[in-house]
Amino acid sequence: MGAAGFSSSSFFLLFFLLDLFFLLGGFTNASLLESVIVRQQGLRANSYLTRDELWFDQTLDHFSPSDHRKFQQRYYEYLDHFRSPDGPIFLHICGESACNGIVNDYMSVLAKKFGAALVTLEHRYYGKSSPFETLSTNNLRYLSSKQALFDLAVFRQYYQESVSLKYNKQAGDNPWFFFGVSYSGALSAWFRLKFPHLTCGSLASSAVILAVYNFSDFDKQIGESAGAECKLVLQEITNLVEQQLVTNESAIKHMFGASELRNNGDFLYFLADAAVIAFQYGNPDRLCSPLLDAKKQGKDVVAAYAAYVVDYYMHTFGAKPQTYNQEHLKKITITEDSGDRLWWYQVCTEVAYFQVAPLNDSIRSSEVNARYHLDLCKNVFGENIYPEVDVTNIYYGGTNIAVPSYIIACHNCGHGSDLRGCPQSPLNIEGDEQNCTSPEAVHKVRQQIIEHIDLWLSECHDSDRSAI
Hints:
This protein is an alpha/beta fold. It is built from 16 helices and 12 strands.
């Protein structure tokens, strides 16, 4: 029996891990965060279960009946825990960054528990999976979530055939589960929606399934997570920085180690993201404690924030000001930092997630508005580039995604902490949750994940047997 054994009418579910940014595109400069995590993983022993590269020929354009071009797409497999030949296959979807191996996070714990093979596929265009030698705007026209979903479907069929051949498997497909965080979490959910017959279930952690044009709620949520006192100090810092940009632009940019950001909008976006990272990844005290101390002691709060940005955001977390530099985003040569340009192309064409300042009570500068984002898209990619948010939401369903789902809430657990643990940079081996803001809550979520995978595995096997 082939893939058709997984009936689209079955009740194998999609489940969401709900954090404070769930459903509303809740992540900051996604390519930056993912690439930072990838770089930090390489600095720690045992960060990867494997880094042995494998390749297969992928179709360039899944929607053209006449274009038969292929490109080499990179993937990895880890079989140490695989209960051959009938064990499940867990596919971890690589998102908007290079994929340099199978990471030793909580997925390895799940694979060990369920006797699963682990595989991961690099997203088209990112890392070493580029179809072209340069990243001109014209060459990027095949970069989309829709093409990426078909990549996953084609790869799933290819890998299943290789497993069946390798283990002389005669009795049908293995049970497949898809996993992802943030944008790759959305891909996991959308894959379950578009290809229900190819997976028993999907985990969509902190999944950004709703494309949003003016996403002012993002800033509002940061304010709620910060608390009243920290929020007020952050707002004061924004006002003071805006004033200093008028009176002494070079000095204030130098203070934050970001002199290369000549565009003030780029600079203010950089400062906004630096604050977001503390809340999104479950480390608010690292930001708020020194700011509140400086305020109470009558010290320079801008200098205190600059110290946080330079010492933590840049040196510890690994962020680079160039990620926000539109001149850098224009570069079409493929480098290790090309993910910045690639993700902005997806933002500017499909999903937007424009994290704009609310009209009132904003933390980020009002200069980070829709016009700033649209000008960036035009400046970096040229004319006629515009995010088709409505088309994206119609195609996938937005928050009304038409897939049976089970939602697990974990307020302020941290973005993707269920699979990655805390801290996320550098990598926490096997996704240890002990350093998370709410370790008990993360542990409880993980127990529910295990229970549901166990249930859906049995249901998947039952359906498989009934279809024979």
